[in-house]
User: Which sequence fits this backbone?
């Protein structure tokens, strides 16, 4: 279980609150267990395997810790930790993106005017 | 003109042998599409920027060269605490002996 807990050493260089740390932990847990998950998913999807094997694989997959589930991962703003209105390309919420863009901190981004 | 199905299957089989793909004429679900997927864990885990160098690290590095690195934020903090203590508003000292004897013990 220890791998699903927060890292002993703080390793984030962006804005941090508990939600960001938790999300980061989930990402690391997913990365660690992804091959196992994919193997189970393969067994489940493979109709040539016996039904019992596939049912066991289904059970094992559903009984994995929920931090290892990719749908638990949510992109958050690296400047404010907000989860809504986050622009994927810039990893920033829309307001932080606006502020940074107007300040000229994001290369290649310019306010449109015509 | 129509080609018989058996002939087409032969062609498909030969094709699969040549290009080393799976011969699956009935379209049975073998779950191979899961195996074909790329792992996305590394990309997802690299979302947040990691902490690279801290002022502490710099201080440790430069200590061997007898150089001092100033940590302004930490100095501000210490100054603030000193000001609080001068006004008698600082945090209380931790109790060591008294808490163990008289105070409620933690189990």
Assistant:
């Amino acid at each position: 279980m220890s791998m699903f807990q927060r890292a002993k050493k703080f390793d984030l260089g962006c804005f941090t609150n508990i939600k960001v740390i938790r999300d980061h932990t989930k990402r690391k847990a997913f990365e660690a267990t992804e091959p196992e998950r994919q193997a189970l998913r393969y067994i489940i999807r493979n109709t040539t395997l016996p039904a019992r094997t596939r049912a066991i694989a289904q059970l094992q997959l559903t009984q994995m810790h929920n931090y290892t589930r990719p749908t638990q991962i949510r992109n958050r703003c690296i400047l404010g930790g907000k989860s809504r209105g986050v622009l994927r390309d810039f990893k920033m919420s829309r307001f932080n993106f606006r502020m940074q863009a107007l300040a000229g901190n994001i290369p290649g981004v310019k306010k449109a005017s015509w | 003109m129509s080609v018989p199905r058996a002939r087409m299957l032969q062609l498909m089989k030969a094709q699969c042998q040549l290009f080393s793909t799976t011969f699956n004429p009935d379209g049975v679900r073998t779950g191979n599409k899961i195996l074909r997927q790329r792992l996305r864990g590394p990309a997802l885990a690299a979302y947040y920027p990691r902490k690279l160098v801290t002022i502490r690290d710099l201080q440790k590095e430069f200590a061997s060269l007898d150089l001092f690195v100033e940590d302004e934020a930490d100095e501000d903090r210490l100054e603030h605490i000193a000001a609080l203590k001068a006004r008698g508003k600082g945090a209380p000292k931790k109790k060591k002996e008294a808490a163990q004897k008289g105070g409620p013990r933690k189990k």
Chain B has a mean pLDDT of 85. Chain B has six helices and no strands.
